[in-house]
Amino acid sequence: MKKNTAAPLCEGAIVTALTTVLMVMGMYVPAFGMFTLFIGGIPLMWLTIKRGLYISAASLAASMLLMFAISGNFLSGPLTCFMTLLPSIAAGYCMRRSSGYYTALTAVSAAVALGYIIDIMIMNAMAGGDNAVIKMLDESVGTLKTMMSGYLSGIPESETIMQTLNEGLDAGKNAVISYFPALLIIASAVTGYAIFSACIFFARRLRAKNYEYVKFSMIKAPKSVCTVAVILMIISFLSSDSTIYTLALKNVVAVLAFLLVADGMSLVDFKLSAKVKSGYKRFLIYILAMMIGYMFLSLIIYALMFMGMFDANMDFRVLKRAGDDIEKQ
């Protein structure tokens, strides 16, 4: 009995120490901060697969207490841990139960969204009840305006250029505020996919779980999503009022459009994988393409969305349903 109790406690202590080291490095080493978002919860993911949810939850609580002891800031643990560690625990729990890929991906993305929401609530409390998101946007826009005003001073017609830039920045800020729910969902989905992919990779390398997953080139939006997206797009374009219902509709349309863009990117990856086998090389190609064609980014997004629409209806890859091609290596 003592041996059965000692092993989980020792593993939990080791995981707590590793998690704390990774999170502290993310806090105090800026270059490591982005990597922490994706790999900071790997030890907890491993512990969840091996020992279950209760041991990993205790390890999470201990890690947060250690971060408080090291930083001296009571909020450093929650702000840093919720969005980074909760998704990894969700990934480990789903892999332990051998949940389906899309079910697990949804759970991880939901955990990321929950982390975002908790962080926003904490920041609102720290701001004295004010909206922290709007406050940060106002500060960022104000800083950009000040910087651009300094750069443009002395240039002919600088006032006209600055007025145009100010209008563009204000329009961008209003768009972010209006589409914030959709942006939150999209950011959670993208971050959740990246974290879940990292968890699957390390779970296989650490021999914790040989989890079956869907390759990105085989992800496909259902035909129903395309149909609903087109109908709602038409309705939103015809709606000229600015009520809360129209705004909610536009956010729904934005999320559905993102799913179609993801389908279009998956189709491109499917075609490119026939020539470039390495996924790392294809990822580098996509990054370079975005950097070179950033001025045409909106056109690229529209092109991918229409490709996703056609693929959802015509099934160019001959996939009966999303997830037919499961990686079993």
Secondary structure layout plus pairing:
Blueprint: H1 2-28, H2 30-39, H3 42-51, H4 53-71, H5 76-96, H6 101-126, H7 132-152, H8 158-178, H9 180-205, E1 213-214, H10 223-238, H11 244-273, H12 279-292, H13 297-314, E2 326-327
Antiparallel strand pairs: 1-2
What report would you give on this structure?
With 329 residues, the protein is mostly helical. The chain has two domains: 1-128 and 183-211, Arp2/3 complex 21 kDa subunit ARPC3; 215-329, no CATH class. Helices cover 79% and strands 1% of the residues. It is built from 13 helices and two strands, in the order H-H-H-H-H-H-H-H-H-E-H-H-H-H-E. The protein has helices at 2-28, 30-39, 42-51, 53-71, 76-96, 101-126, 132-152, 158-178, 180-205, 223-238, 244-273, 279-292, 297-314, and strands spanning 213-214, 326-327. The chain has a two-stranded antiparallel sheet with strand order 1-2. Helix 6 crosses helix 9 and helix 10 (223-238) crosses helix 13. The protein is globular. The two termini are 37 Å apart. Residues 321-329 have low confidence and may be disordered.
Helix content: over 70%
What's the CATH C level of the largest domain? Mainly Alpha
Shape: globular
- List the secondary-structure elements in sequence, H or E: HHHHHHHHHEHHHHE
Helix/strand class: mainly alpha
CATH topology of the largest domain: Arp2/3 complex 21 kDa subunit ARPC3
Query: Major sheet: order of its strands?
Result: 1-2
- How widely separated are the two ends? 37 Å
Mean pLDDT: 82
List unreliable stretches of 5+ residues: 321-329
What integer value in Å does the Rg equal? 23 Å
Total beta-strand segments: 2
